[in-house]
Specification:
The protein has 67 residues and is an all-beta fold. Helices cover 0% and strands 45% of the residues.
């Protein structure tokens, strides 16, 4: 899953990704203001990258996990 923000003339402002080697699915996305973006979904990947201060920075398994 890739998240990107563009300017009106098509320049990339920032980009980020979420995912691993198995099935990852984004189910919903919402923005609050200009600076807060929330994505929810599910993953079967135990190697998903998360920021160290995330609510759950590691895979919760055993077979799949929500984000």
């Amino acid at each position: 899953m890739v998240l990107m923000k563009w300017t009106l003339d098509g320049q990339i402002v920032w980009s980020s990704y979420l995912g691993g080697v198995k099935d990852d699915r984004g189910r919903a996305i919402t923005m609050i203001g200009d600076n807060e973006i929330y994505v929810s979904g599910s993953t079967e990947s135990s190697d998903v990258i998360a920021t160290p201060d995330a609510f759950q920075p590691a895979f919760g398994g055993p077979n799949n996990d929500m984000f």
